[in-house]
Amino acid sequence: MPPSEPMIVFDGVEKRFGDHVVLSELDLTVAPGEHVTLIGPSGSGKTTILRLLMCLESVNAGTISVGGSYLSHMERRGQLVPADEKHSREVRKRIGMVFQQFNLFPNMTVRGNLIEAPTRVLGLSKDEANARAVELLDLVGLGEKIDAHPAQLSGGQQQRVAIARALAMRPDVLLLDEVTSALDPELVAGVLALLRDIGETTDITILCVTHEMGFARDFSHRVMMFDGGRVIEDAPPEQLFGDPRHERTRTFLRAIVGQ
Amino acid sequence: MDNLPRIVAVLLDGLPATVIAAVGGIVVTVLLAFPTGLALRSDNRVLRGISRVYVEFFRGTSEVVQLFWIYFVLPVLVGIQLVPLFAGVLVLGLNHGAYGAEIVRGAVASVPKAQVEGAKALSLSPRDIQRRVVLPQAVVEMLPSFNNLFIQLLKSTAILSFIVVSEVTERGIQVLVPNFGDDIVLIFAVMLLIYLVLALLITTGMRWLERIGARRLGRRPSTAARVAAVVAGH
Amino acid sequence: MVWDWGYAWTILPELLGALVVTIEITLLGSVVALLLGLVIAVIRRARIPVLDTVVWAFVEFVRSTPLLVQVFFLYFVLPRFGIVLGAFAVGVIGLGVHYATYTSEVYRAGIEAVPRGQWEAAAALSLPPSRVWTGVVLPQAVPRVLPALGNYVISMFKEVPLLLGIGVIEVVNKAKELSSDTFRPIEPYTIAGLLFLALSLPASILVRRLERRRAAI
Predict the structure, then answer these.
(1) What's the number of domains chain B is made of?
(2) Cα separation of C120 and C126, whole Å?
(3) Which of A3, A240, B134, B225 could form a disulfide with B221 if both were Cys (CB 3.0 to 4.6 A apart)?
(4) Which C residues in the span 26-85 are in contact with A, Cβ-Cβ below 8 Å?
(5) Given CB atoms, is C3 within the 8 Å cutoff of chain B?
(6) Strands A173-177 and A95-98
(7) Residue B218's pLDDT is what?
(8) pLDDT digits 0-9 by tens, A114-165
């Protein structure tokens, strides 16, 4: 894929829940390998963007493309129609997501969680998937926990396993949805350090929703400030944090950083 | 379809017996369930023991066996021959009363301890606490489960056809099936419809009680009570 | 003379033989109920527009009307459509379908209890729907509701005697036969009742223990 082609494109996306419009006329592009952080008050639509990319919701208008292929739609006989489940699942294989609540499968061991999708979806052999699992768990520092059950792990450990699970699919895009918000404060730093490592050592495009402003500043190439379903400011972190153009951004940052 | 009026007439002949059995059964159930349910929580060992034996016995044996026992064995044993309908009401009440006792016990147990403690702090007598604080709240929690239980009871009235009570099922099987064989699907459709309507009436009645409960207590059955009612085996 | 031990001993073997029939029907009926109930629950979860309403109506209808009438219905109506099954088979199907409506509700409750995040994580990994069900949701939903399912199996066991209406020689029917042959109802019916107790009581205690163990987790 030519390097100039964007990895993620939102084109005129609108998302409504009943009468409540969460996203309107949203245009957004993310280049390959970029780290973009979405910040803003709750309900501003940032999590919805991640959920749309994950096909946990569908668009009411506009299109979403990932890696040059349509995600929200598909081409049928030269026409663009809403994507069916099969198509979405195909394109979505390139995207991984880590959730606020970890969402590890409690009925499987850590190993089970890690090899599940690679074997069932990517068609890896059990040996290949196991090798990958071991490698990733070492990366996140939990090698010896490979046969433990999620219930036996701390929150921080579970989240690191969740990150490994997402990486096991070798995604092009990684979505992080407030991944440290449910953790005890002392466990947050470990997870953030891991994410920084991943950001530095891989080319994965990362879209991150977070309240951790320090992390956002270090980690991102770009920060987008959301409010009322629109991007009101989109700039490199030094600029957005250092000299916010928009009044709303200023008040938001003051409230967050002031804590 | 020409036979429809005749079919309906014959089945409605059985309706009074079904309704009497159901209503009678419900009354006996309630009369047994409350004292027994409370007795199951009593500090008195003997009281608890007797109630437990009653509950386990009637829940652990088949209703048909209980029916035949009361109708066929009791006369031989103690010389009392019960009228079939009465035997039916008795068995329905005894059987479902045992299940009802568990519902009562569970609902009373589910009233938060804080309520009882708060009432004690207000120096209410144990009797008052029971009657004015615990029971009203417990009753509201019981309503979904009792709804299910009463519908179960209604369905059980069909068993009375085994001891020749002329209720709806008996009329359908003994009179209609032999004589209107061609309209068999119609016969059963009407029979099932009658039971469906009766079940609906019961549910409507219970929902009405729930509304009264909500108004007087500001409380509706909790989601847990509803889920438990659905999931509870019987 | 109230209780004749001699008579009781002579009829015991026959009653036990009929009890075996009761147990067989319970086991077969349970298999139907447990499998069909799961299918119904999964179908309803899929929320396919017309099918969902039809299945819902069917479940409500079967749940709210007497099992006995449904069994009679199958017994008399199926032959009209060329399906000739013995009373035993009709009984198994009738019990199985009736209890499937109960178990489907139990399964639904268990499935609802699985946190949404599990579905979303499975979707995020692009797991195919069949795997989401078999690998993630059902392994979490079913163990949770085993006690309730167990209770329904026990309930079915106690409702098998309804089949005497269509002539199945299960234990209560056998007791009826014996008591009318010899005009002694006490022993047959009492033994039949005790046989039920002997099986259902330990089973209930086992289920209750299972429930307590789950609650402790």
Answers:
(1) 1
(2) 10
(3) B225
(4) none
(5) no
(6) parallel
(7) 67
(8) 999 999 999 999 999 999 999 999 989 898 989 999 999 999 999 999 999 9
